[in-house]
Fold Response regulator transcription factor.
Amino acid sequence: MCANVIVAEDDEKQAELVRRYLEREGHAVTVVGDGLAALDEVRHGKPDLLVLDMMMPRADGLDVVRVLRAEHRELAVLMLTARATEDDLLLGLDLGADDYMTKPYSPRELMARVRTLLRRTNRPGQANPTTDAVDQVLSVGSLRVDPARHEISVDGTSVECTPGEFRILAAMAAEPDRVFSRQRLLEELHGFDRYIGDRTVDVHIMNLRKKIEPAPRKPARLLTVFGVGYKLTDPARSASRA
């Protein structure tokens, strides 16, 4: 099975190059040239992946991601940009992008990123290690993670997460109280990808705390283990131990 991919890129030569490489790998590709067209294609189709240029007419890539996540659309998003500062990278991830590449880039590296992202977000024709290994609902106190339905809830209230955030939380919920290093969580996000740094994990953790913690600045579930990484715990059980 192939994935359904939208390429949103206003540079026609660049868009054609990406389209050819994607089609070579068996994916169905739709190319659009501006941000509003990208939103329209996502809303009327069922894409698995959006390859999204940051700088586009009518609506830029950041605006597109912001709208898609506000509409709770869970497709994977890979952003492309000539702007290579760390602030740009973190802003894109904070808004809900799953991966980020700077121009110029190698088409072969882009395809490797696509394969990894599709595999990690459980898209057509790809295996999802978390879902394959765990088909039951994972519970850590009042936090529930359902890998099969890709659903998260806290105290019975549904929580919307990006695919990257879900991967992290599902991995940690499968082994509560285990300390996960940043490198271990990076492997959950991107496998062999060595181009995304530790700050990527920190941004996802920060966003997850906003969604699952009553007081994100004083986390009780998703804890920092200084100098090591992060762990997910049951606040009620931790309180009783104390």
About this structure: Residues 116 and 190 are 6 Å apart (CA to CA). The chain has ten helices and twelve strands. The radius of gyration is 18 Å.
